[in-house]
Amino acid sequence: MPKHAMGALEAIKYTRGQLKVLDQLKLPHEFVYDDVTTSEEAFDCIKSMRVRGAPAIAIVAALALAVELQYKKDGGSTAEDTLTYINSRLDYLMNSRPTAVDLSNAIKLLKTKSSHAISTPSFSDPCAEVRKAYIETAEKILEDDLTTNLAIGRYGAEYLRRQQMPVNSPMDEEDQLRYFTTSPPGTQGAPDKTYRKLSVLTHCNTGSLATSGHGTALGIIRSLHKMNYLLHAYCTETRPYNQGSRLTAFELVYENIPSTLITDSMAGALFSRFKDLKNISAVIVGADRVARNGDTANKIGTYSLAVLARAHGIKFVVAAPTTSIDLETPSGAEIVIENRPGKEMTQISGAVVDSEGNVDVNKVQRVAVAHQSIEVWNPAFDVTPCGLIDAIITEKGEVVRSAKGTFDFQPIMPERWRVQVEGGKEANGSRQKSSEKSDDFTQFQMDV
After folding, report:
1. 115 and 72 in contact (C-beta within 8 Å)?
2. I need a labelling partner for 362 at 20 to 30 A (CA). Which of 154, 238, 267, 282 fits?
3. Distance (Å, rounded) from C-alpha 152 to C-alpha 149?
4. What is the spatial distance between Cα 66 and Cα 17, in angstroms, rounded to a whole number?
5. What is the DSSP annotation of 266-301?
6. Residues forming a β-bridge with 113
7. CA 322, 326, 330, 336: dihedral to nearest 10 degrees?
8. What are the DSSP calls for 11-33, one per residue?
């Protein structure tokens, strides 16, 4: 691992007027940050998957335009000119990853806050007010994402801890590292009990490289490890783009978390052979978009893992901020799935390994791994039916599957539910009574 990589692991580095994005296609062998100064560069960064992960995509898109506005690239002479520029650039950026609901939610918020700035009196420079409103909102999105991820990690770790049963039989001294001791859930002050540490499997990459930091599904694993609840983490390679082997494996090793990499097709065998021995208790995945009923679009291969988890009696858990929950989409049937180029499956790039096993990062080659004339179907995502999901962990807590097999998000997002599902009006001034509860802690509060 490069020496300069041993600091904080950051996919996005931002100061006002400057945005640097880690080129994740060059990981795990190289740490290269690209300067992103325009919306076009952000679009290419997202489309080429140099940055990926629903939260990170939204953050990069928002901040790239913030950089443009910091240097007044809108060229507006009136506030309306600047607002028109902002809206057109955001519409353009939306097409970089249409499936990512975090991106669409962020864009709605940015448009609303920028529009509201026009009504703010400014006799000196009305364009500056609009730019300022946009930039501050984009920066708040970045700040809130980390807070959200830490909360998801904490809630997720505690949810999984509560699924464990206490161990009453005596244990050998050499096995003590496989257990943890704490008070039973919901019994503060009661005598401590001993529990087996748990193992989990994750898919794709949902850590610091997919967010502003800590991560969602991988954030739960980080929290489990920090709380001493984790025995072992397994990660899939996640074909065809290998985000698991390139990125998640890198993060797990970086954090010194006990971990093992498997191919996507090994999950069933892993569960069958090691569920009891390793106490494999959950599959934890992220989400690109969660429909109103709980159907979840995520990296291709997620659905298969959910089926395998159900067959082996293993919890299937989705870690997603409320920004990834799309209340306007009733079910997964309405989610549009992006198809990726076939060459992503038939070709692969990587650093050259010499005869002694040394990796030469200065030599990268692209090789064919399949017949180049074969027809390829390469969807980026699949949709896991809500009936196969046990819990969805958000920054506001866990939402568990109901007896009907669906999820009810109204208790954690009452204002968004009222506006987007029940057809109520937005909470701004006279449109909502002050006594009504709003989604103050929703990362991108839905104002439109």
Report:
1. no
2. 238
3. 5
4. 7
5. GHHHHHHHHHHHHTEEEEEE--SEEETTS-EEEETT
6. none
7. -140
8. SEEEETTEEEEE-GGGTTT---E
| Token pair for 316 | 């299937």
Could you tell me where the beta strands, DSSP code E, fall in 385-426?
A: 391-394, 397-400
- Measure the CA–CA gap between 384 and 303, rounded to whole angstroms: 5
SS3 state at 347: strand
The token duo for 60 is 């990069």
CA distance 206 to 11: 12
CB 94 within 8 A of CB 145: no
Single-letter amino acid, residue 431: R
In tens digits, the chain (448 residues) has pLDDT values of 333 334 558 899 999 999 999 999 888 888 899 999 999 999 999 999 899 888 899 999 999 999 999 999 999 999 999 999 999 999 999 999 887 788 998 999 999 999 999 876 665 788 999 999 999 999 999 999 999 999 999 999 999 999 999 998 777 766 778 999 887 776 667 788 999 999 999 999 999 998 998 999 999 999 999 999 999 999 999 999 899 999 999 999 999 999 999 999 999 999 999 999 999 999 999 999 999 999 999 999 999 999 999 999 999 999 999 989 999 999 999 999 999 999 999 999 888 999 999 999 889 899 999 999 999 999 999 999 999 999 999 999 999 999 999 999 999 999 999 999 998 765 544 444 333 334 433 343 333 2
Cα–Cα distances (Å) from 9 to 31, 250, 253, in that order, read: 10, 11, 12
| CA 411 distance to own-chain centroid | 22
> In the structure encoding, which two tokens stand for residue 416, read together?
């968004």
**Phi, psi (rounded to 5 degrees) for 356:** -100, 5
Distance of CA 416 to the CA centre of its chain: 21
Enumerate the β-bridge partners of residue 234: 201, 260
Cα–Cα separations (whole angstroms), residue 271 to 201, 283, 392: 10, 10, 21
CA distances 429 to 106, 140, 414, 424, 432, Å, are: 22, 22, 17, 14, 6
- State the catalytic residues: 288
Using CA atoms, how far apart are residues 299 and 203, in angstroms rounded to an integer? 8
